[in-house]
Amino acid sequence: MIPNTDEERRQLKSACTAEISGFAEPTPAQWFQEMADWAQANHVSHDHYGGGALIEGFEAKVAELLGKPAAVFMPSGVMAQLIAVNLWSERRRLPRFGIHASSHLQLHEEQAFQALLHLHGVIVGHRLRPIVADDLTAVAEPLSCLVVELPAREIGGQLPEWDELEALKAAAAASGTPLHMDGARLWETRAFYQRSYAEIVEGFSSVYVSAYKGLGGIAGSLLAGDTDFIQQARLWRQRMGGTLIKQSPMVVSAAMRFDQRLGMLEACYQRTLSLATCLQAIPGIRLLPRTPQVNMLHLFFDADRAALLNARDEIAREHGYWLFTNLGPTDVPGWCKTECYVGDRLLGVEDERVVQLFTDLMQLATQAA
Question: What is the pTM of this model?
């Protein structure tokens, strides 16, 4: 029986014994028990309106890792980045900031920077590649800051080469344009650059990092920068309703896995490279980028969307593997795409098994068409 509703497909997914993308996620009960055990072992006390040993210690740890004087925990990345672009606009007395066409601020936040802060986002660079130095120098008017996402999630997790990144930093310094990093997935970049996070971030005046993407926390983010900048960010967090009475659940969930997850990302990246080599040999599948730069990539399928979804569901029923959830359109008619993030789920699955599953997917989808 082919599932017809979202609920039926959710049930089919939950019945699978294995998923291809991401890190294995515990049940709420398992998650909360793990948090309780870690909190007890580490003698954790609640924070109070952003103050306390737990949250302040985590902020200091992340700031040091990024080579910045200070950091502040925020309940969401949206809040952290809106505060950052607002502060740069205030400091520079400019309502314009630079942004890539695929940025989260541009695509997924309902134009919050305009609706709430009355700011204007200037599109910089080509929508299908990362921002480089020439893109910044081509901007006609001064910018309060330039938001640079590393890696750029919506274009397959692409990164500029190291020389390109250094040239962008130099161009920004020459023009006096502060760089703000959208580092939602910054943790994943070290395996490609083979440099410390502080080296990667050097030259960026402010940095946002996620407390859950890659780390497995419940939610939350951190904003890092100079001491005065972070003091002002705390003020704006209060104004935006983000200074919650207790953020310890979010902080504990990120802190307890922090070192372990960072230590796994090199293996996840190497697994991604191996997987990409195998998947490229399957007729009807293309990858972006062809050689992954982080432990994620986009898979493009030359097949009808409905046929692919039905083929995915058949494989889930027959083999207990869930290949993907979301399947979006592309600029090429007749093609679809999905995102694959390589976490611990794929570390224990052989390439041959994954290749067979995706080969079956394409055969079933094309036969149905």
Answer: 0.96
